[in-house]
User: Fold this.
Amino acid sequence: MGINRRDFLKGLGGTVAALGAAGIVEGLVSDRKAEAIHQAAPLTGTIRWGMVVDVAAFRTEEDFRRCEEACHKYHNVPRFNSLKDEIKWIWSDRFENVFPSASHQFVSEKMEEQRYFALCNHCANPPCVRVCPTQATFKDTSNGITMMDWHRCIGCRFCMAACPYGARSFNWRDPRPFIPGELNPDFPTRERGVVEKCTFCAEVIALGEAPGPGEELPEKQMPRCVKASEGRLVFGNLKDPESQIRRTLKATKTIQRKPQLGTQPSVFYIV
Amino acid sequence: MLEKALYGSKKYWALVLFLIGLTLVGTVAYIKQYMYGLGATGMSRDISWGVYIAQFTFLVGVAASAVMVVLPYYLHNYKEFGKIVILGEFLAISAVTMCILFIMVDMGKPARVLNILKYPTLHSVMFWDMVVLSGYLGLNLLCGWVVLQAEKKDVPPPKWIKPFIYVSIPWAVSIHTVTAFLYAGLPARHFWLTAIMAPRFLASAFSAGPALLILLALLVRRYTEFDAGKKAISKLATIVLYAGLVNFFFLLMEVFTAFYSSVPSHKETFVYLYMGLEGMGNLVYVMWTSLAVGFIAILMLLFPKNRENYGRLAVACALLFVSLFIDKGVGLVIGGFVPNPLEHVLNYHPTAIEIMVTIGVWGAGFLVLTVLYKVAISIRALTSPGTH
Assistant:
């Protein structure tokens, strides 16, 4: 005799109950910290790269332009005339746009007029990595950098919907004819149909040895924007308590973008 | 059995040719888009999913709605749905086909789409959406085909098909739940970050899908000998009505939470969609049209007399379908991107190419539907000559 309706429902009920119980048991036995619970891929290495933006040090438009250009030139980022096709890795915006949840009434004139850098936050718990169906965007757990594999990306743009910081761009059309100036032969250009974003200059950092505890990254291995910033951007290992970035964070009041989302950004701002 | 689709009246062939024409228009537009890139669409860095993904989302609902005939028939032995059940299953097949096509035309790198299988990513909802959608397509193909084949031979369906039919019931719920999770699990998007996203999806699906099924059943009844039966259609109309009411109830829940709490990030998309925000709001008239026709349809369906009268029932179902199509197939997905994560407000305008590709996919879907319905109806005519 085949399965009748009653048997089927009984079987179904049992399965659901078993699944539910498994979930509850798991919840009871695990006593991990809340922090660890929403960390998709724990950073296992001794390095977590991070950045501090010394906002007040950026005074003129030229201060921003130098960093943006250093980044975009090095990475062969195309420049389109239309907002629709736009691709950007690092850019600046107003306080209320970069920090919509920290923005409040009656902000000081200084805050209102100041512009703030926006870039990929290389979150410890990145929503873009969680949603990517092919692991084309992934967490390098040895150094905390959120990476992009442009040969694996299928262009579904789920990561763009998921990123709370608007840090990702898509190649809506062939980017190559729109790369301004000379091409940088050291960095690949992209094709249409893939997502791209800031990679914390992972390829530049990797040019030499990784710094040990208490050591800083040498100037030539610093991300291009950091190098061009003349000290306005501090870059270093967040896992090394002796690093300059950690000392800066300890001594100064900083904020992160949308901390309430639990993404744990690696970019901090001195405001 | 497919050979049944090769013999038909002039009207049947005219319809088939018309749908092939639409598909060709879409194909030509898609080739243009493929050569240029997705820049040929109205999507942008800020509104990175447009009409394609919105249509996909809506059609997952249409596919899921087959459960509204399968469940009463197979689980509760509601005999009146005996004839309409095959129409529901075949509608699901064509709807899932359209879903897959809409995903394909939305891919930046369609040739790489199998990467999803090569690198299965268990923490990506999109992976699970692929699993449930292809599984559902398989289940409906299998169940529909086996049951119809049995009918052709005038024997009861084989017993081994029963488990598949039963599994297809929760599976239908799963496809729309998982699709809702594509949206509801994103910390970046306030408009979608709501626990009733999946229930909302199901309510809207169980109203829009059966509404389309009624329209199709009425069309089939008019142009062929196949009649799904007055009782079945009237019962389905009741389902459309109740699910429609629940859908609008859920919408009101969202509005209450947003506006009574008065939290700006919860309100902003609603304001953008229904009133316009910072001078932007190209969907305002469309969204009000959706509300207005939805309200009229519900009002019509509330009266049992209108549910019995095929003319008025068709009008009500068409209105409700349009209403929900706009609500989910336009507003819900596109609205979620406005304002963007940096609180900028921008409009999205689909391009001519995008609209042609969309029409092409609908054409292809209805072509599949026409062929499948032709097979089903021919077999019914063969086995029960007494009914016409």
